[in-house]
Amino acid sequence: MTNAQTLKALIEDEVIPEIEDSIDYIFELVDAKKATKEDTEELKDTQDLLKAFREILTELENDEIDEEECLELIEDINAMRNGDNDEDDEI
Questions:
Q1: Does residue 10 lie within any of the structural domains?
Q2: How far apart are CA 65 and CA 4, in angstroms?
Q3: What is the reported pTM?
Q4: Who contacts 67 (Cβ-Cβ below 8 Å, separation ≥6)?
């Protein structure tokens, strides 16, 4: 499996569902009128993150990301999911 295929699977099968679950949870707080200002800000940030990952998928489909960059993105995503915030990554 190429890095591009691995990245695509990671985003589609794991990252996007996790982000969508987070968005759903925050919407539940909003609906229950229990959302704080921080929750509302987190909702916007999470929606922006979802948009960014969907853009990466589009770039993958258009072969706009090379294998080396795919590997870097995979490493960045894994670090982000593991809570490693040592780097200033922009995804």
A1: yes
A2: 8
A3: 0.84
A4: 2, 3, 4
Radius of gyration of the chain (CA): 15
Answer whether residue 91 is part of any domain.
no
User: Residues 42-68: pLDDT tens digits?
Assistant: 999 999 999 999 999 999 999 999 999
Q: Is the pLDDT of residue 90 over 80?
A: no
Contacts within 8 Å (CB) and 24+ apart, 72-75: 73/7, 74/3, 74/6, 74/7, 74/10
Q: Could you tell me the residue range of the domain that residue 16 belongs to?
A: 3-79
Read off the pLDDT of each residue in 26-50 and give the average, rounded to a whole number. Answer: 92
Structural domains counted in the chain: 1
Angle at 53 between CA 78 and CA 67, to 5 degrees: 65
DSSP result, 10-35: HIIIIIHHHHHHHHHHHHHHHHTT--
In a domain, residue 69? The reply is yes
